[in-house]
## 1
Amino acid sequence: MQTSRETQSGNDGQAKWAGEFPDKWIPEAFQELAQIAHSSSHPANWNLFSEKDPAQGVHLVLDGEVKLSMNSIDGRRLILRIAKRGEILGLASALSGKPYEVTAETLYPCKLAFVSRRDFLAMLARHPEVYQSLTEELSRNINSACEQLRTVGLAATVPEKLARLLLDWSENGQTTESGTRMRFVLTHGEIGEFIGASRETVTRTLSLFKTRRLVAFSGSMMTIPNKAALESYARC
């Protein structure tokens, strides 16, 4: 985990706040959100907050990706999902006042905007119409967590779990003549934390997938040549 960061606080204009979530707000609420938020840049592996920490506020992902995970007492970790640009982190805890339920850590260098819980709740009090968008955001988060738990808890084998994970990631991939292409820089250990498997098992399974031409790698990019073939492993 990094112990230092490059920070540049300030208010970002609406043009830089790309993403599906806040764009649904009415202009007045959106403008106020931008005014009370403070942006900062963080290196990879920077801890934004940990589960059971007091809820300080919310973080909006302006650029980069953040992994959200849960940890057991004995140190095992389950990665729930990767948050991307336009998503808001710590929303449930900010609304309820309860400690954070997950740990948020940057996967790549990121730019985020932080809004303190006090300012966030005050803004919502002035713009109650925003609650509909917040409800939709919470619903998406719950659905995503349920899908992840379904994969980890109900998939019978590691190949099935890994195939489901790769297919899920491929939904945001780039369609090319050779298949669906996406960035893939997670370590085998981190992939194991997504599906509840050891690093060694992930390595063996990915080797099997490559041998059977279910996936192909080129540097930090992965291609799925034939989704239908991979779906046979995922039992879709």
Note: The longest helix spans residues 131-154.
## 2
Amino acid sequence: MKVAFISDIHGNAIALEAVIADIKKRKVDQLFVLGDICYRGPEPKRSLSLVQSLNTKVIKGNADEWVVRGVREGEVPEQVLEKMNLERDWIKAQLDQNDLHYLETLPTEINVEVGGAVIQAFHATPESLFDVVLPNAEDDVIATTLMTSEQAQVFVYAHIHKPYIRYINGKIIMNIGSVGLPFDGLAKASYGMVEITNGEINTSIQRVGFDVEKVVEKYREVDYPNADMMINVVRNGRL
């Protein structure tokens, strides 16, 4: 049984198409989406439509919340607040009321049993859409902040755009990275795979190339606010 987890598309429909094609090629049995669908990319509407066409469970990320109600003081550094809200206003203008209602009403957690293994998935932490837990956090921080379900053997999250897999207390914690805006220096889409065979659990991070320069063209074509910075992120895989 193969289960794929994707997240942090951030309006990069070109990267999302590449990931969906890779998932189909690998004959994945189930797919889940962990949020951040539209914000900060040149194709928010098309990204959302692609996600909805997957007919699978989707949960909310912090950027989905921002699209609905804006970026608030204290959620980002003060010097970038105005710029990020300009981007948010542009994104919101590309969507209709049905799109906004869809984002607003998304659930915030997935609990699923696959092949006898229980998986808990969320965007940032089980309690927050915004908290940041980095790959180098201490084991006890990860265990108490992220691995809160007693039943789960596998914990999957996104948000930080830096994929990793660790093993703590006999369980697996995996960050699946970002489809649209990787921050780990590799300008390729990232997603997570959980494969369960005869009760054995194997996890992996998949990296998928996409046409970066085509995404760059899209940012310029739509006159995206803050385009130069976002182009730099897409090209270099770093914020």
Note: The longest strand covers residues 189-197.
